[in-house]
Specification:
two-stranded antiparallel ribbon; 2 domains; about 90 residues; alpha+beta
């Protein structure tokens, strides 16, 4: 896996490389072909293949919600107003 810094955000960007075979982590966790390895400055975790897509979809939902909140705040609303709006939308 290669790592570089994004010129736009300054955040670390990783690229995907495939691996064929089994690995064993220090925590005695087997990494199977198709599992996702997620890591940052705090460490690495293994996301089993069978739930990886579900978790990726949940993460995208959270990202979309956070982006919407940021946009609402940029437009002049307070965080309290935005979260109240989101609560109202859930009831509908």
């Amino acid at each position: 896996m290669g790592k570089r810094r994004s010129t736009l955000s300054g955040r670390a960007v990783f690229r995907h490389n495939s691996w064929s075979g089994r690995l064993k982590s220090g925590g005695n966790r087997k990494v199977e072909t198709g599992d996702w390895l997620l890591g940052d400055d705090d460490g690495v975790t293994v996301l089993p293949k069978k739930i990886a897509v579900e978790y990726a979809n949940r993460a995208m939902d959270v990202l979309e919600k956070e982006n919407r909140i940021r946009e609402e705040i940029k437009e002049g609303r307070t965080l309290a107003q935005v979260t109240d709006l989101l609560r109202w939308e859930k009831k509908v």
